From TrEMBL:
InterPro entries, per database record: ABC_transp_permease, ABC_UrtB_bac, BCAA_transport_permease
Gene Ontology biological process terms from the UniProt entry: amino acid transport
GO molecular function: transmembrane transporter activity
Protein localization: Cell membrane
Name of the protein this chain belongs to: Amino acid/amide ABC transporter membrane protein 1, HAAT family
GO cellular component terms listed in the entry, alphabetical order: plasma membrane
Family to which this protein belongs: Belongs to the binding-protein-dependent transport system permease family. LivHM subfamily.
Positions of transmembrane segments: 51-76, 88-106, 149-168, 202-223, 235-256, 263-286
Keywords recorded for this protein, A-Z: Amino-acid transport, Cell membrane, Membrane, Transmembrane, Transmembrane helix, Transport
Keyword Membrane part of the UniProt annotation: yes
UniProt topology in membrane: Multi-pass membrane protein
């Protein structure tokens, strides 16, 4: 029972990190970012490569992956998304194209093949990341088995969620983001630099995706298309929780993660996914705007 709980909570935690970025960026910018899963993949590959070439340990790879994914996200916002604000279908197609390009760059050894340079170990083959040994050895507290790595995932997610809450509700930048979520035109009329705030918001959400990629790489194989399924799961959480709602995102990720974990252990992964989709459909029929969402007046 405890093992099932830890699996469900760790899956929920990774879902939460992925969905937080999606919820904030869609709520503030109205952008459906189909390349968000590839930012998760970039975070995972950053951790793998930093260990190989920079000898960075797992813990140092976390902030590095955040920084790299945030920079990629900011570049994506500046070069592509900024030119397509207010055109949801165009941004969806454009970011989907960016996702395909990023996947292919990884398959082509980060594009170095174009210059006739081969880097050993960077091909399209599967990669793995080494987790510190003390995080892989279960222990017991009061007769209850504890899985240290999954506990670490939960703690990191909790800290980043609290940081996100603080930034959103206790800083001037967060106030501006929430104002843009409500009405970007009025926010701009009040003197808020909507483009600058949107750029930093997008970068922060991308950084969270990068951290999720590192945590995911600890128990899953790192590969170019690993982000394709994660972005779908992230959007499911956003839809269920309500766009722009931090509380809704937290509760939805916990609900869907636990359902997926329990049914995967009791039955199999395929049935677990089917049940998750069934729950999402039922909630959308009951609450089309999600469990928690801003009320329009």
């Amino acid at each position: 029972m405890t093992e099932t709980l830890f699996i469900g909570l760790s899956l929920s935690s990774i879902l939460l990190l992925i969905a937080l970025g999606l919820s904030i960026t869609y709520g503030a910018m109205g952008v459906i970012n189909m390349a968000h899963g590839e930012l998760v993949m970039i975070g995972a590959y950053t951790a793998v490569l930093s260990g190989i070439y920079l000898n960075l340990n797992f813990f140092l790879a976390l902030p590095l992956a955040f920084a790299v994914s945030a920079l990629v996200g900011m570049a994506l916002e500046r070069l592509v998304i900024r030119r397509l604000y207010g055109r949801i279908i165009d941004t969806l197609l454009a970011t989907w194209g960016v996702a395909i390009v990023l996947q292919q760059l990884i398959r082509l050894e980060f594009g170095l093949s174009f210059f006739g340079i081969h880097v050993e170990g960077l091909g399209p083959g599967l990669q793995s990341m080494d987790v510190p040994s003390f995080l892989t050895q279960p222990f017991e507290i009061g007769g209850v088995p504890i899985q240290p790595y999954r506990s670490f995932i939960i703690v990191v997610t909790l800290l980043l969620t609290l940081l996100t809450w603080f930034l959103m509700y206790r800083t001037s930048m967060g106030t501006q983001v929430r104002a843009i979520m409500r009405n970007p035109q009025i926010a701009a009329a009040c003197g808020i630099d909507v483009r600058r705030v949107s750029a930093f918001t997008f970068a922060y959400g991308s950084g969270l995706a990068g951290v999720a990629g590192v945590l995911l790489a600890g128990f899953k194989t790192v590969m170019p298309d690993m982000g394709a399924s994660t972005v779908v799961d992230g959007f499911l959480v956003v839809v269920v929780g309500g766009v722009g709602s931090l509380l809704g995102t937290v509760l939805a990720s916990g609900l869907l993660g636990q359902i997926n974990g329990v049914f995967a252990i009791l039955f199999n992964d395929i049935l677990a996914r089917a049940v998750v989709f069934g729950v999402v459909i039922a909630i959308i029929l009951w609450r089309p705007r999600g469990l928690f969402s801003f009320r329009s007046r």
